[in-house]
């Protein structure tokens, strides 16, 4: 039976760097406070006039070039995002048009920071069912445009960027071995952006007066749930595929918080030096963080053919998941 292989990767990030020192001039914080609690030193910030779909297209073009395909070969385009160009139509439609991928179906996917993993789960299912041969899966976010820079608990976390992967149908022993995605809607209010939807539409004065179109988080609750959930789901995909944690070559986690990554790795008995991390340079880019980290690791030569890669993410919803891939 066919399954998905990650045939190409790419990423694109804004040039503007927002450092911890920059933030300390906006809000009561410091470089030490941010680094010790999150591991973040800097993040990228989109400039006025930048358009997110342009970054998604750039990342996608790099991934397609690496995979040896062109836009005409694409059967589907999935864009995981919580910060699209606009609500209607989907950002995937803009990406499809800009790429010239005329025959590709296109849609957005909102699973917050777990978006790329959810997309991998769906993309693998499409290829297994024979409904597609080439799928472009993109994670792209401009989170700084939904960040309240008067709230020091959240404004230090988020950055902008896009990462892309090409999923190709294969019958080889490489590719996706197992994926598991989960959700617990009881945690919906823990990570959220209340304003801008139909409950608190942008045309109501109180939506802006109450700062509702900004990301809000309950950090303590999120931390505990994240560590427990991703540990459990990682064990699940390993068991489902018949592997032990000791056999994992690399863990590529969502880049939310260095302490979450370290705590989960300890519970899995995986050394920290086998975790791909770039959070210090990009912060939390939500659905874009795994494909950005993956592309950097692939292009630097850290990830090699035959490596066993464990992906995992946790995000708003709560949503979370894991995937095991033979490179």
Describe this protein's structure.
With 327 residues, the protein is α/β, with parallel strands linked by helices. It folds into 2 domains: 170 residues, 3-Layer(aba) Sandwich (Peroxisomal Thiolase, Chain A, domain 1); 150 residues, Thiolase/Chalcone synthase (Peroxisomal Thiolase, Chain A, domain 1). The strands form 4 sheets. A 5-stranded mixed β-sheet has the order 1-7-6-4-5, sandwiched between helices. The chain has a 4-stranded mixed β-sheet with strand order 8-13-12-11, with helices on both faces. The radius of gyration is 19 Å and the shape is globular.
Topology:
Layout (H helix, E strand, L loop, with lengths): L2 E10 L4 E3 H5 L6 H8 L3 E3 L7 H16 L8 E5 L10 H9 L5 E5 L5 H14 L5 E9 L9 H4 L4 E11 L4 E9 L7 E2 L12 H5 L6 E2 L1 H23 L8 E4 L4 H11 L10 H4 L6 H11 L8 E8 L3 E8 L1
Parallel strand pairs: 4-5, 4-6, 11-12
Antiparallel strand pairs: 1-7, 2-3, 6-7, 8-13, 9-10, 12-13
Number of strands: 13
At the third CATH level, what is the topology name of the largest domain? Peroxisomal Thiolase, Chain A, domain 1
As residue ranges, the low-confidence spans are: none
Q: Which bin fits the share of residues in helices?
A: 25-40%
Total number of domains: 2
